Amino acid sequence: MNHIDITVLQQLQRWRAQGLHAVLATVVRTWGSSPRPVGAMMALCENGQTVGSVSGGCIEDDLLQRYTHLGEQMDHALGWAQPPQRVTYGVTADEAHRFGLPCGGTLELVLEFDPDAGALEQLTSQLLGGALVCRSVDLGTGQVTLTEAEAPQAPGIDTQALHNVLGPGYRMLLIGAGTLSEYLATMAIFNGFVVTICDPRQEYMDSLQIQGVQRCALMPDDAVTDFKPDLRSCVIALSHDPKLDDLALLEALQSPAFYVGAIGSRRNARSRRERMQEHFDVAPETLARLHSPAGLSIGSKTPAEIAVSIMAQVIARKNGNVTGLPEGQVGQAAPLDLR
Predict the structure, then answer these.
(1) Domains of the chain, with CATH numbers?
(2) Where is the XdhC Rossmann domain positioned along the sequence (predicted)?
């Protein structure tokens, strides 16, 4: 789940709690090129306010025209008491052009009218608590069911219901406090990650100036265990101290984390792999998951530039668009199929 999703759901809940009419739009299928992925959400209020997006803007404009202030095209016989609707944009070339969709792009939305404020409050509370929740919407009645999900998965729809697994958001655990971790944490937060910085060295933690991160003073291997990395998590070792970095990496490589990385020179990276194989019997296929030196090859020298290169590699791996090799070799990796 992306950070914007919880923002959409929270704002929608506030509107409904105030007694305002609102619509929740969810992208459920796409064909060809599409500005937003399956699962993207947008909420709009009868007063014209919106949050989130389902396209580049033109579809949002059409929805606003239809459903704000009980627009002229609203079905007044039903008003806001409508069952969910499935609508498709971009079927024809003219529609694709009108709604700003890429050539050949088509997307299908499910529109939910006046979602229940109580169910939304329960959902957002569970998501903020770190739960993984499947939100199922009956397409005939609009009835919403919330159930615990076992694993992240892409949204699915059939003739009877929309099933959308939400939460938890993307998380990043950084080992080692310092200037680089501050830059990288700032970029990660900007990209919707919840960031934890771990360093058992109190003097390093005391020097951190960044706000909005969680702090951890555990030993790195214990920190990784406590962090419980999942498919939406990444762990990056930044301390330059093998006693700290290696402990964290050994634990992280055994987890489902989508990205595990460590800074250092190529020589240091080779030495680290040799240590892990010789002293800890780490299998070559497990070490193949380690991005070290972390970051794409952009000639970075300063902490800020190194942070850019690492963040770019993390996002690339998250989106499944490149192999994420430090040499900057571009290829096709299997998409994570997660939001």
Answers:
(1) 3-121 (no CATH), 171-319 (3.40.50.720)
(2) 172-314
Output the CA angle 300-306-309, nearest 5 degrees: 85
DSSP E strand stretches across the chain:
22-31, 41-45, 50-52, 85-89, 106-113, 133-138, 144-148, 156-157, 161-166, 171-175, 194-198, 214-216, 233-237, 259-262, 290-291
**Structure token digits, residue 20:** 């305002």
pLDDT digits (tens, 9 = 90+) for 161-187: 999 999 877 899 999 999 999 999 999
The pTM assigned to this predicted structure is: 0.67
Angle between helical axes of 242-252 and 266-280 (0-180°, round to 10): 60
Q: How many CB atoms lie within 10 A of CB 57?
A: 12
Q: What is the DSSP letter of 197?
A: E
User: Phi and psi at residue 87, in whole multiples of 5°?
Assistant: -125, 145
How far, in whole angstroms, is CA 148 from its chain's centroid? 19
Residue 260: both structure tokens together:
């595990």
Q: For tokens 């019997």, what's the residue?
A: 281
User: What was the pLDDT predicted at 230?
Assistant: 86
- If one counts every other C-beta atom within 10 angstroms of the C-beta of residue 262, the result is 26
Per the DSSP assignment, residues forming a β-bridge with 162 are 137, 157
**133-138 β-sheet, strand order:** 144-148, 133-138, 161-166, 156-157
Cα angle 22, 26, 29; round to 5: 155
Report CA-CA distances (Å) from 316 to 6, 60, 308, 335: 23, 28, 12, 10
Q: Which residues of the chain have pLDDT under 50?
A: 70-72, 76-77, 323-339
Cα angle for residues 207, 209, 215 (degrees, 5° grid): 80
